[in-house]
Design brief:
The complex is a heterodimer of chains A (299) and B (292). Chain A is mostly helical and 299 residues long. Chain A has 13 helices and 2 strands, in the order H-H-H-H-E-E-H-H-H-H-H-H-H-H-H. In chain A, strands 1-2 form a two-stranded antiparallel ribbon. The radius of gyration of chain A is 19 Å and the shape is globular. The termini of chain B are far apart. In chain B, the strands form 2 sheets. Chain B has a two-stranded antiparallel ribbon with strand order 1-4. In chain B, strands 2-3 form a two-stranded antiparallel ribbon. Helices cover 74% and strands 4% of the residues of chain B. Chain B has one domain: ABC transporter involved in vitamin B12 uptake, BtuC (Orthogonal Bundle). Chain B has 292 residues and is mainly alpha-helical. The longest helix of chain B has 33 residues. Classes of the chains: A mainly alpha (299), B mainly alpha (292). The interface between A and B is large, with 48 and 47 residues.
């Protein structure tokens, strides 16, 4: 049972990560900086609970705020360029953050052992959950509560004016600009929101694994972050969840019996899905069909 | 002594930077022709070097032959990538091809890990020896890498600027619709671009293998990142830009390593990219900054 709860936790954190990329992708920007924001959130939140003894929720919020602020600061220079230049700039950002934590030591003595991040060895002893008697079930429920809150907020945003503005910028920048939309403000806000969500994901991740290190937050993770919404489709937040279940549940765990071959199949299946469904698993047409089906039932 | 060591690291970096230039050219050519980025490029390049290594081990042959085999294998891989990741995916959707090439990247990396059990493989040394020039030493293998890379660039530039195929390629990159109107087959040119860049990448992969002395799956991600940085610093789509930027990045990397050590050097290379993004977002060879 614990195995499935653990899987549920991983899925929850990855859903948050995917949603953080989803917000940015709405504006038509591809950001591979999400892993960097997640690292910042993870380290900040973990340092606050372990070194300063903050309560968890406050630490998570602080981590999300710092990650969001960083995203805002990075957004201004990075969003002067767009398209592929932004992809490269954000790759560089994630690498800078990773290498920063690779060289980052900040340890204090607590009792007989020293705690805190230690360069390449990472940050051990993030024991908030065990120390406060949380079981795996509690943690899983807590993570999915956060995911549900974020999803509800984004789902609501998709239907509000803000969502329409984001989509307008994503569909056609020049048309959006002609309607009086401030492109930079919209893109930087989306980046900030995405950064904050990724920071939240990082804080949760740090606490359930109890050990983080720079090699957790590579370009590969950033690629996963954009892979979820792209594979799932950008027309709804549920696409991201579907893709997380498809990748983490089916590709990573469901195919474990294939052993080594699973990893080979992983890349091949992504290539295949993009060939068959270039707009994602749940694209706009599928969503419209689903909506029709459900509304028919109500009558 | 400081000056001597500094000059030494600059020279070494410049020589090795030629391989980054080759990888950067590959990214930039595909971008120029299709306005798409091929994320699987560096992975396929290293994969081609592995394929050459395998073939040499299997049938035997001189070490230099591995360079040519790698180039041939790279061409084949390039075509495969084009067919699987670009040919049947609508180009109007920029995210789809980005994702499909990322999938290809993961696949290529996994195939490498799978066939070698993730162990680094020794690469045959083509040229050994050190040129001793007073206080300086120049590594023979790096000079060889540099000369080979320059040769590859000259061949490529000849192909692009002196042959019919090159004219067609440049026409497609300037105006795809007009190129189609004068009878150039887009799919044909796109596929050929992938073959040519693939050959260039395979050659670069083999050169890197012979300069580093081994091939490892760990080369793939740093090479992808350096290649992309070179592409952006040089200006997307600009071949001379990619060459200069490749040498610049190779040099900067070695200088930063000399001053700040190997664990921090890449931070500064990335920051160099940000400096360019802020002050010269169009790359080295942009004379006017275009409005968005």
């Amino acid at each position: 049972m614990d195995f499935y709860l653990g899987l549920l936790q991983i899925m929850g954190v990855h859903t948050l990560l995917g949603l953080s990329a989803y917000v940015v992708l709405q504006t038509g920007q591809v950001s591979l900086a999400q892993a960097g924001f997640m690292a910042i959130g993870a380290y900040i939140a973990a340092m606050l609970t372990v070194l300063s003894g903050w309560p968890l929720i406050a630490a998570l919020i602080a981590g999300a705020l710092v990650a969001g602020l960083t995203a805002c600061l990075v957004g201004f220079p990075a969003l002067r360029v767009h398209g592929l230049m932004l992809v490269v700039a954000t790759i560089a950002f994630t690498e800078i953050v990773r290498l920063f934590f690779f060289n980052f030591d900040y340890q204090i003595a607590r009792g007989s052992l020293r705690v805190g991040p230690l360069g390449g060895e990472g940050f051990r002893q993030i024991r908030y959950f065990p120390e406060n008697g949380w079981t795996t079930l509690h943690v899983a429920i807590f993570i999915w509560t956060v995911v549900a809150l974020v999803m509800a907020a984004l789902w609501w945003m998709d239907r509000s004016r803000a969502g329409a503005v984001l989509r307008a910028v994503g569909e056609d920048e020049i048309a959006a600009q002609s309607c009086g939309i401030n492109l930079t403000a919209v893109k930087v806000s989306a980046m900030t929101a995405g950064g904050a969500i990724a920071g939240l994901a990082g804080g949760l991740y740090a606490h359930y694994t109890t050990h983080i290190e720079q090699s957790n937050f590579t370009i590969l993770l950033a690629t996963f972050a954009i892979a979820y919404p792209i594979l799932g489709g950008l027309s709804s937040v549920f696409g991201t969840v579907a893709a997380v279940i498809f990748i983490q549940g089916f590709l990573v765990e469901g195919l474990r019996f294939l052993g080594d071959w699973r990893n080979l199949l992983f890349g091949a299946l992504i290539v295949l899905v993009m060939n068959i469904r270039p707009s994602g698993l749940l694209d706009a047409r599928t969503m419209a069909t689903l909506r029709r089906l459900f509304s028919r039932k109500e009558h | 002594m400081l000056i001597v060591d500094l000059v030494q690291s600059i020279v070494d970096g410049l020589l090795f930077g030629a391989t980054y230039a080759l990888i950067g050219i590959g990214f930039t050519l595909v971008f120029g022709v299709m306005h798409k980025i091929n994320m699987a490029y560096a992975a396929a390049s290293v994969g081609a070097a592995y394929a050459a290594l395998r073939l040499i081990a299997l049938i035997g042959g001189p070490a230099w032959a591995s360079l040519l085999i790698a180039a041939a294998a790279g061409g084949v891989f390039g075509l495969i990538i084009y067919w699987l990741c670009f040919r049947f995916i609508p180009l109007s959707n920029p995210l789809a091809t980005l994702m499909s090439t990322v999938g290809m990247f993961l696949l290529a990396e996994e195939i490498i890990v799978h066939t070698t059990d993730g162990m680094p493989q020794n690469y045959p040394v083509v040229v050994r020896g050190i040129l001793d020039m007073g206080e300086f030493m120049i590594r023979g293998d790096l000079v060889f890498v540099f000369v080979c890379a320059l040769l590859a660039m000259v061949v490529l530039l000849y192909l692009l600027y002196r042959t019919k195929l090159g004219i067609a390629t440049r026409a497609v990159s300037q105006q795809p619709v007009a190129a189609q109107l004068v009878g150039i087959r887009l799919n044909h040119i796109n596929a050929l671009t992938f073959i040519v860049t693939g050959m260039l990448g395979g050659f670069a992969g083999a050169l890197i293998g012979s300069a580093v002395g081994l091939l490892s799956p760990l080369l793939v991600i740093p090479l992808t990142i350096k290649g992309l940085i070179v592409t952006v610093i040089g200006g997307l789509g600009s071949i001379p830009g990619a060459i200069i930027a490749g040498l610049l990045v190779g040099m900067a990397e070695n200088v930063f390593q000399y001053f700040r050590g190997v664990t921090e050097r890449d931070i500064y290379v990335m920051l160099l990219l940000f400096v360019f993004l802020v002050f010269r977002p169009g790359g080295i060879f942009s004379n006017t900054v275009k409005r968005d």
